[in-house]
Each structure stands twice: as C-alpha cells, then as structure tokens.
Amino acid sequence: MTAPSENPADLDRHNPESEIAARAHAHRNWGRWGEDDVRGTLNFIEPSHRVAASRLVRLGRVISLAQRFDTDGPQKGWRRRTNPVHTMTDTGVDAERGTQGFPHGMGGADDVIAMPLQCSTQWDGLGHIFDHGYAWNGRRAGDVVTSDGDLVTGIEHVADVFVSRGVLLDVGRHLEPATGELPDGYGITAADLDATAAAAGVEICRGDVVLVRTGQYSRTRREGWGDYAGGPAPGLSLTTAGWLHRSEIAAIATDTWGFEVRPNEFDVPAFQPLHQVVIPNIGLTVGEMWNLDELAEACAAENRWEFLLSAAPLPITGAVGSPINPVAVL
Hints:
Layout: H1 16-27, H2 47-54, E1 62-64, E2 85-90, H3 92-97, E3 110-114, E4 122-124, H4 141-144, E5 145-146, E6 149-150, E7 163-170, H5 171-175, E8 187-188, H6 190-200, E9 209-213, H7 216-223, E10 235-236, H8 241-246, E11 251-254, H9 273-282, E12 285-288, H10 293-302, E13 306-310, E14 321-323, E15 327-329
Parallel strand pairs: 7-9, 8-10, 9-11, 11-12
Antiparallel strand pairs: 1-15, 2-3, 4-12, 4-14, 5-6, 7-13, 13-15
C-alpha cells in the first residue's frame, strides 16, 4: 500500500472524505497496545524517558505555558464555549462586616469558577473526536461517551502520564525570522517540522511531547483576539499525519485554537480533518492554546530546544479534555 503523500499540493481538494480515510487507514494504531488501551500514544512515555528528561534541568527555571483563565479570553460562544466566569462566594467585605459566622475574628475568602474544559490552554482527550462513529481503538463512539461522560478513555486515566521530554519546534521563528509569526492559513508540512528540528539541532524521539509555535498567539496578544477562536490560523497540514505517526511522539501541542491549519485544506466543506485522523485513529493527544512565547525566548537564548515538561490534566472523571497549566523546566 502506497503511503499518502506528504505534499499538500497532492491533496484532492474536492474530496476530504478520501484524503482523511487514506491517512486514517495508513496510520491507524488500533490494537497496538491491546484492546483495552486508554492511553494511545502516551504509552510511548516510559520511566526511563522521564529520568533522561530530568537531566535536562540545568537552570531550575520554570516557565508556565498556559494562557490566562479569565473573562478576557478567546472564546466567542461557538458550540457553547465561553470564557471562564470567576465568582467570589466569600470576600474581605464579608469578613469586615462580621457576616461569615466565624469566631474570634476569623475571616476568609472563597470562590468558584464555571468554564468549559476547553476554553483556554488544554488537552484534547481521546474521547473528544470520532471518525465515522468510532472512537480510539475501534470502539463505537456511543459506547465510549454518553451523557455520563467518557466511560472508557476519560481524561482521569492519564492524569499521571504527562511528564516527559518536551521539544519546542519554533516554526514561526524558523520560517519567518523577521517576525517570528506564520501568516494565517499557512499549512505546516512534515518538511517544515524536519527543517525546524534540524536548524535547532534537536532530534525528535519516541515519547517526546512536541510543542509547535506558529506565532499566532503572539499576534493576538498584540492585536486582540479577533477570530483566534475558530478563525483562520496557521497550523499543521493534514499531510503531517504520517510524520505524527512515524515519529512516535507521545503528544503534540500548539499555540493556536485548533492545532491544524485553518481554513482547512479543501475547496468543499471540511472541518478539522487532521483531528479526525490523529485522535481516534493514531491515538494522539492534542494540546491547544498554549502560550509558547516566553519558552521560545528562553530556548533561543540558551540555544537548546529540549526541556523537562510537566502537563498533567485535572483528573475530571469522564472528561474528554482538561484545562492545564503546563510547565517547562530548564
């Protein structure tokens, strides 16, 4: 069987169904880790990999890779995704007024937050996307996710996994050195990923968590959110599916809303075709809306692009995604 082309020019732009199916079948990992598997490519992270990653810590510098979680966020209401709503349930005013009921002058503050789990920096879990009614590992989507949540691959099953070697591929800086920002609609190719890694002198290895910086987040912080949530964006081309499969990376994250290039690469209706290949078929966990700017500056200053990465999701039972505060330790 001939592997699908990794040249975007070869895509049949009028037939997304065929292009998606070719890559789903060519790169499918169903059964690779057994019929009961719930972790997908996160299985590539082994204890020895974490030990090696810990040796990358030289400065003790910790960089948060999260966007802020507040009402000034990117969400615009699409599919009921809103920005976080933070509410105080007890305040200093209550303490001053003596209305809290505590003895001997004791006072306190409490708060609550309401938000979609994918409103800011987050992981897409394996129950997030289906392909023709099938979820990761060939399970029927309706047997996996019901109104009770993800009964099989809920994000809680990988709460202890996300510590590994992180590698930053600053594609924005590599391809657009003057600005460090790729234009909206630029489809990052497998050749772009390889060239960026080669220029940085870093090798992508099994079990790595790869972070791809496009520079779009930098632009939105300068110019405003605009259509960051769901609008045009640089991102990975559908043709990178083969690279994502053969590299045997554990997970991947980007500084964009949707990970893959938008508009998607077809002249007929299509929606997030790379998601449809990589999540339910490859079993790849995808991160979105990461803030990679400070990390990019630090990596450039140190001239090293690998680090210890910790990015644990909240163990929300049955969730198909989770907000996170990933940290790189240099």
